[in-house]
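Form 7-S
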Amino acid sequence: DIAYASVSSAQKLDVYVPEGSGPFPAVLLIHGGAFMMGDKGGESGNAKALTAKGYVAVSVNYRLSGEARFPAAVHDVKAAVRFVRANAATYRINPSKIGSWGASAGGNLSAMLGTTAGVADLEGADLGHADQSSRVLASVDWFGPIDFLTMDTEAMALGFTINTNAASSPESRYLGAAVPSVPDTVAKANPAKYITSDDAAFFIQAGSADRNIPYSQSANFYKALVSVKGAEQ
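Output:
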């Protein structure tokens, strides 16, 4: 329950530090929950698994869609990275080796960290430690939604139905308007929009049996990354 910013009570994180003097690489764990629910405590198992392998695990809460709309959650996870980097010595972290992991909505936010380093509009520098970088060295994306605008048609192509385009969908609530009505905002929330050759290394995992997020979202994101960065570097 360490505060990394002071705008919201949600802006807190838990730090799990392995035995030893370090400095250790660190992983920011970003919980899922459709941008509208979930808690950092749910990642305690993953955090303990990481510390057993010699990583500092940082499980982070962020403002959910019931409190604040996009890009607040992106601002929050970036502020958390900057906080961790600014306090690296305190938590025995190697500040040059910070990565991120997330599943579902957390996967989208992890991917955003991986592709948007230096994008001023998404930085949320007013949340603190503006002198620090929010860049991550590696990003793990477990079945994160990538392009909200194409999720429904991709699901249909895979033989099932979702309703991302509805005004009541989690993605629409996250954006503050029905997905089809705000294509420019949808594009800004799409990590593929920002891909450059110096982005984080990525590991993407998805399953073809997923009936909430079409696995083609992950496959298309992978293809977009490879087209710029190449594969398996």
